[in-house]
Amino acid sequence: GGASGGGVRLDRAESVPNPVLDSERKKTFFCSELVAAAAKEAGIISTTYNCSYFWPGSFAVGGEVDEAMIDDNTYGQEILIDCHVNEIGRAREISD
């Protein structure tokens, strides 16, 4: 089973060509770069910023992402996600 709902799947090998991100597609992403790339593709943040400009702290309130937002886009409140390494390592996909 895959993800349900109307989410966007980011797959480097099958993604639609985008001249703004083509130079960035030749490398692997750090976690915050992946989130920034998705936000650029979705039109949430400006494409004038390189994805490598964003670090995890860039997504905090008042971070670099705030200045890169297009139009009236905003993020909601920050939430804490507590992930225990052992639990993640033993996680398995559950079919629908």
Give a description of the structure:
By secondary structure, the chain is mostly helical. It has helices at 31-41, 64-68, 85-89.
Sum up the structure in keywords.
96 residues, mainly alpha, disordered N terminus
Query: How far is the first residue's CA from the last residue's CA?
Result: 6 Å
What is the strand content?
under 5%
List unreliable stretches of 5+ residues.
1-8
Work out the number of β strands.
Answer: 0
Estimate the mean pLDDT confidence: 75
Helix-strand makeup class: mainly alpha
Rg on CA atoms, Å: 15 Å
Helix content: 10-25%
Count every helix, treating DSSP H or I runs of 4 or more residues as helices.
3
Shape annotation? globular
Could you describe the largest sheet, including whether it forms a barrel? Answer: none
Instruction: Sketch the topology as an H/E string, one letter per element.
Output: HHH
Summarize the structure.
Helices cover 22% and strands 0% of the residues.
What is the topological layout?
Elements: H1 31-41, H2 64-68, H3 85-89
